[in-house]
Design a protein that fits this description.
Number of strands: 2
Number of domains: 4
Order of helices and strands: EEHHHHHHHHHHHHHHHHHHHHHHH
Largest sheet: 2 strands, antiparallel
Oligomer: single chain
Distance between the termini: 134 Å
Number of helices: 23
Shape: elongated
Length: 406
């Protein structure tokens, strides 16, 4: 609008007013720009509520991954928070729901599903039709039953998703003799399913075969120590050399046991154990070599166990060091469940003239429980009717101060 400007001066002279065409704002200038911004923001919100696919005017809450993991996958809140960190890209439960249905069809329980998701959260992102169902069909073609496949998923769900699992199983199942044997090894070391077959596993198997081990021996060796197949070939070669160094030649019946005994033991630890055996049993270097060659696993026995064995066999039974060195199988027996109870029986029978003096304790210690009872307990039922009762007490650790005749 036009506004007249009074240009009168203090001198009293009147000057004609000048009319200026100045636009008049109904609000402050800065408020104008602020309102423009607020208006734009309001339009964005409105677009989000109405133009973003939300017909009701309000968008649904975003997919809460952690809550879903607790409610549908049976994870604990702590487990869910941890797993949700790798699943933050999930925007809906559609894929997880399909995967859970697949796992349920395999026969997995709620606890199994929870264990699988904790181990491999990304399994929930798998395409059932493109990945999981085809893998299931391939495993069935290998002859695996649904229950076996379910157990395989539990061992390593991440490997189950990958196509390489088929070629691995085609190699391992014949090597281990059965899927059950392989599964037992996988429980100790699932890296069998991820190790390089051509550059690691097969060279190790070839070396073990060169040592005179058949597939059955390799399976027996690798079920308790599956790392023998997945370690670098150079490391396995060093283990073979150490097994030979303790006095067990390749091709011998005890070589598998020697390899198991020295597996992942350093030369220093083996040398220290040899010195301990010499000191504890008063053995010479040659006697240690004899004992280790016959019972390589003695290198794995704890110092405490070996001390208790030496005290019993040498101090109580009265056996000579050389005698023990040539019969180290006694060291593999349980002290409380076999050696002590049978020694007390043999001692009792000899003291009462019920057993020939030349009948050795070693013989009594080596036979099976059934044979021991038949040869050392039952024949003396009339002469020593309490013998069976007293022997049973010793097996429970309740050693009588003196076995009773009546």
């Amino acid at each position: 609008m036009a506004r007249a400007v009074d240009r009168s001066y203090s001198s009293g002279v009147r000057v004609a007013p000048v009319v200026l065409n100045v636009p008049v704002c109904s609000r402050p200038v800065f408020g104008f720009f602020k309102d423009k911004k607020e208006s734009a923001a309001s339009k964005d919100v409105a677009a989000t509520r109405s133009g973003g696919g939300c017909s009701s005017g309000l968008c649904p809450a975003p997919f809460a991954v952690a809550d879903y993991l607790v409610a549908s996958c049976h994870l604990t809140p702590a487990q869910a928070v941890k797993a949700s960190k790798v699943l933050s890209h999930l925007k809906s439960p559609s894929k997880p729901e399909a995967v859970l249905a697949f796992l349920s069809d395999l026969g997995l329980s709620d606890a199994d599903v929870a264990a699988v998701v904790v181990y491999d959260p990304l399994l929930l992102c798998s395409e059932v039709d493109k990945t999981l169902a085809p893998r299931l069909a391939e495993l069935r073609d290998l002859g695996l039953s649904p229950s076996q496949i379910a157990r395989l998923v539990l061992v390593d769900p991440a490997r189950f998703r990958r196509p390489t699992i088929i070629s691995k199983l085609q190699y391992y199942v014949p090597l281990f003799g059965s899927f059950e044997n392989l599964l037992q090894a996988l429980k100790y070391n699932s890296y069998l399913l991820s190790s390089d077959l051509e550059n690691v596993v097969k060279p190790n198997v070839a070396l073990l075969r060169e040592c005179g081990l058949g597939d059955c021996d390799i399976a027996k060796l690798c079920i308790p120590v599956p790392r023998l197949l997945t370690s670098k070939p150079e490391r396995i070669q060093a283990m073979v050399a150490r097994a030979e160094d303790v006095g067990v030649p390749r091709g011998s019946a005890m070589f598998r046991h020697a390899l198991l005994a020295v597996a992942f033991l350093s030369e220093e630890k083996i040398a220290a154990k040899v010195e301990f055996l010499k000191k504890t049993f008063r053995w010479s270097e040659a006697e240690v070599a004899i004992a280790v060659a016959k019972l390589p696993v003695v290198l794995r026995n704890s110092q405490e166990r070996l001390l208790r064995m030496s005290e019993f066999l040498m101090s109580e039974v009265g056996l000579e060091p050389e005698y023990i060195a040539h019969r180290p199988a006694m060291l593999a027996c349980s002290l409380e469940a076999r050696l002590k109870p049978r020694y007390y029986v043999v001692k009792f029978l000899k003291e009462h003239g019920l057993l020939k003096p030349n009948r050795s304790f070693y013989t009594a210690a080596q036979v099976s429980e059934k044979v021991f009872v038949e040869k050392f307990i039952r024949p003396h039922k009339e002469a020593a009717p309490r013998l069976a009762e007293d022997y049973a007490a010793t097996l429970k650790g309740e050693v009588p101060t003196r076995f009773r005749l009546q």
